[in-house]
Amino acid sequence: MAAPNRQMALMDKARACATFNSRELTYLLYGGKEATERREAAFTRIEDALGVSDTRKLPLAYAGQDREGQYLQGLAFGKALMDDEIKHRHGIFDYHSHRFALIIASPFGHNPLMFGPTLRLQTSPEQRDYWVPLLEAGKIIGTYAQTELGHGTFLRGLETTATLDLDTDEFVVHSPTLTSTKYWPSALGFTASHAVVMANLVIRGKNHGMQPFMVQLRNLDDYSLMPGIETGDIGVKMGLNSTDMGYAVFTNVRIPRTNLLMGNVQVLQDGTFIKGKHQKMAYATMMYTRDRIVHNVGFQLAQAVVIATRYSTVREQGIGFSPTATAEWPIMAYKSQHYRLLSLMAQAYALFFAAAECTTIYNQLTAQLAAGDLSLLPYVHATTAALKAYSTQVASDGAEDARKCCGGLGYSILSGLPSIVGDLAPMPTLEGENHVMYQQTARYFMKAITRIKAGLPVDDGVSYLATTPTSSSSSSASTAHCPASSPSDFLNPETQLQIFRHRATRLAFYAHHLLLTTTTTTTPTQQQPSPPTILYAQAWNTHMLPLIHAARAHIELFVLSAFISSTTPSSPQSSPQSSPSPQSPSPSPSSPPTYPPSLLTLRTLFALTLIENPLSPSSIHFFEDGYVSLEQVYSIRATVGDLLKELGRDVLALGDGWGFSDACLGSAIGCWDGDVYARVMGWTRGLRGGEEEGGGKGGGKGESGGDMGKRGFEKVIGPMLRGRL
Ligand SMILES: Cc1cc2nc3c(=O)[nH]c(=O)nc-3n(C[C@H](O)[C@H](O)[C@H](O)COP(=O)(O)OP(=O)(O)OC[C@H]3O[C@@H](n4cnc5c(N)ncnc54)[C@H](O)[C@@H]3O)c2cc1C
């Protein structure tokens, strides 16, 4: 049957060119046909319940809601997601909404994301037995309140106190200053009944540091605030407006002593403070949340790219560069567009596989922790920190570029792109600001290099630092050179890994060298009784950027390794030397499934565009020591050109493979059928109260916007014009 219009015909034609069945790719990504269908059924139920399945209609979210409308909509979808999970016994929406926003977009999102994991991971067995059933039955709604107006990153700067009252066996939670106001937590404004509040634990005037306390915020009968508590919504943000991110002030709020979460520390009735053996277990919630964020942002980047590729397939603009052309070109035909979108698609897939690898090592850690073995904790902590930083930066920058790829319509809320960009925007900040996260990884790295120099073993995940030939090099000049001698060598995953390993190793040793040579512990002399001493911490600040570069280079290697090892079926011939999985502490024993060749081409594109794209944030570090020569860069660039050509037929199929429903994309320009213009105009007419019949007094055509124009005329335009007459 012929397509109803030109855009839909263009979409059908482009889709028909694919070299593989995108549905099969969807099954591979989501763990098989059955799992995919279960997942899709959950989305369909939610979309039906929320009335967003018919994508011919303007989504409610775009209908010009006020703050209250946004919040009520958040409650509605949050409840639908929770009810579906309980009724159908699944965890599909544990970390993302039906539109793939991080689940804190729902006012109930902290229950699965941070509040719940804290109750499971940082409580004593008795506390767990009490709180977790209440959580699972949906009888309490939680939030996690750590950040204050005055401090976010620097935890020791937080000022809220929880002082033990030995007479009443209670803690008194208090906000002593304006800057100690808790600020930001999702659901803190109106929704949460309880909060895990991070506060300085004070006993007999002694501060025992930041600890988690369970504070009931609201009376469960009428939801009035408990005595001494003030909360409120912090208003409209760049995104995530469906939740009530809020503030809280505590004025001498009394809670039972046993509301200190005692998984890591204990306070006895007589005021004895007992430090737990496993203080570092406190990191467990953070690592869990970071792992979830990594998963989520990859999907959000993919959504933005899918919208932009579909639009670019049907959007025609100009007659291109052919002297004989008469018809207009779809914008995808322009090389810059093609390059941008395919390299972004490659990044989205890279994040998907890296996230899966991250979960594998996180699960290994939790299994070991249960057996009392903490040995993997530093590596997993360092990896989740850097991966959180890397993935959120790549995803938010990438989604913004995908938005720009859609020109003016990308700026319209109707494209679905502003909400994706807005929801991604805070990800580099929350749950550990990215530049601080990279430093945590760098700290682990510097310790690893000190061990290597002392001839001691290091974790498997960073053992390449000891074996990569450049490892002794500490300066910017290196004698090592990339061994690739022909363009086809760059297609070899082992060559790609070698290049990334070299860069990561060199930057790590370089940063270590800078730190050591800058740190001085000079002894006083007669001439200089108090010579300047540059402490390690000061040297750290001086060389913060090389340290961050080293951490970023490591994690980019991790991401590439994960992409390669997850998509390369292991063959009996492959030797351990050529195994493309140098990162994981213990590589997965099962062989990955067979992905379509285009996905492997996309993987190569990911590796090579990171090297040759001058806009790639760290590409200079591949060349600055001369490891990759100028000639090799030209060769890589030519190879990238070939790869892009090869992938041309599969651009849509690679996007379709993600299996996003039209409703979850929420885009007038990114729907499956390509019917862009009819949908844009249909939604535009539906804005602000729907269509209005035209032909009024002035006999003009209908206008959308309800009474907005009328009110504008009555209040401003009319008096203004009359005043001038
Ligand atoms: C949407 C959203 C949701 C949030 N949800 C919650 C929540 O549920 N619960 C909660 O408790 N908090 C929440 N937060 C707060 C969030 O965790 C903090 O905003 C975050 O930790 C950053 O802290 P900050 O805002 O104080 O930034 P700052 O620490 O002031 O950072 C500002 C700048 O200073 C730089 N900087 C700071 N320290 C260093 C350093 N040591 N080295 C180098 N550079 C540095 C940073 O790189 C950044 O560029 C949320 C925030 C947002 C935006």
TrEMBL record:
<feature type="active site" description="Proton acceptor">
    <location>
        <position position="431"/>
    </location>
</feature>
<feature type="domain" description="Acyl-CoA oxidase C-alpha1">
    <location>
        <begin position="283"/>
        <end position="446"/>
    </location>
</feature>
<comment type="similarity">
    <text>Belongs to the acyl-CoA oxidase family.</text>
</comment>
<dbReference type="InterPro" id="IPR029320">
    <property type="entry name" value="Acyl-CoA_ox_N"/>
</dbReference>
<dbReference type="Pfam" id="PF01756">
    <property type="entry name" value="ACOX"/>
</dbReference>
<protein>
    <recommendedName>
        <fullName>Acyl-coenzyme A oxidase</fullName>
    </recommendedName>
</protein>
<keyword id="KW-0276">Fatty acid metabolism</keyword>
<feature type="compositionally biased region" description="Pro residues">
    <location>
        <begin position="582"/>
        <end position="594"/>
    </location>
</feature>
<dbReference type="GO" id="GO:0005504">
    <property type="term" value="F:fatty acid binding"/>
</dbReference>
<keyword id="KW-0443">Lipid metabolism</keyword>
<feature type="binding site">
    <location>
        <position position="147"/>
    </location>
    <ligand>
        <name>FAD</name>
    </ligand>
</feature>
<dbReference type="InterPro" id="IPR036250">
    <property type="entry name" value="AcylCo_DH-like_C"/>
</dbReference>
<feature type="compositionally biased region" description="Gly residues">
    <location>
        <begin position="696"/>
        <end position="707"/>
    </location>
</feature>
<keyword id="KW-0274">FAD</keyword>
<dbReference type="Pfam" id="PF22924">
    <property type="entry name" value="ACOX_C_alpha1"/>
</dbReference>
<keyword id="KW-0576">Peroxisome</keyword>
<dbReference type="InterPro" id="IPR009100">
    <property type="entry name" value="AcylCoA_DH/oxidase_NM_dom_sf"/>
</dbReference>
<dbReference type="InterPro" id="IPR002655">
    <property type="entry name" value="Acyl-CoA_oxidase_C"/>
</dbReference>
<keyword id="KW-0285">Flavoprotein</keyword>
<dbReference type="GO" id="GO:0055088">
    <property type="term" value="P:lipid homeostasis"/>
</dbReference>
<dbReference type="GO" id="GO:0033540">
    <property type="term" value="P:fatty acid beta-oxidation using acyl-CoA oxidase"/>
</dbReference>
<dbReference type="InterPro" id="IPR055060">
    <property type="entry name" value="ACOX_C_alpha1"/>
</dbReference>
<dbReference type="GO" id="GO:0071949">
    <property type="term" value="F:FAD binding"/>
</dbReference>
<dbReference type="InterPro" id="IPR037069">
    <property type="entry name" value="AcylCoA_DH/ox_N_sf"/>
</dbReference>
<keyword id="KW-0560">Oxidoreductase</keyword>
<feature type="compositionally biased region" description="Low complexity">
    <location>
        <begin position="569"/>
        <end position="581"/>
    </location>
</feature>
<feature type="compositionally biased region" description="Low complexity">
    <location>
        <begin position="469"/>
        <end position="488"/>
    </location>
</feature>
<feature type="domain" description="Acyl-coenzyme A oxidase N-terminal">
    <location>
        <begin position="21"/>
        <end position="141"/>
    </location>
</feature>
<feature type="region of interest" description="Disordered">
    <location>
        <begin position="469"/>
        <end position="489"/>
    </location>
</feature>
<feature type="domain" description="Acyl-CoA oxidase C-terminal">
    <location>
        <begin position="536"/>
        <end position="685"/>
    </location>
</feature>
<dbReference type="InterPro" id="IPR012258">
    <property type="entry name" value="Acyl-CoA_oxidase"/>
</dbReference>
<feature type="region of interest" description="Disordered">
    <location>
        <begin position="569"/>
        <end position="594"/>
    </location>
</feature>
<dbReference type="GO" id="GO:0005777">
    <property type="term" value="C:peroxisome"/>
</dbReference>
<dbReference type="InterPro" id="IPR046373">
    <property type="entry name" value="Acyl-CoA_Oxase/DH_mid-dom_sf"/>
</dbReference>
<dbReference type="Pfam" id="PF14749">
    <property type="entry name" value="Acyl-CoA_ox_N"/>
</dbReference>
<dbReference type="GO" id="GO:0003997">
    <property type="term" value="F:acyl-CoA oxidase activity"/>
</dbReference>
<feature type="region of interest" description="Disordered">
    <location>
        <begin position="688"/>
        <end position="713"/>
    </location>
</feature>
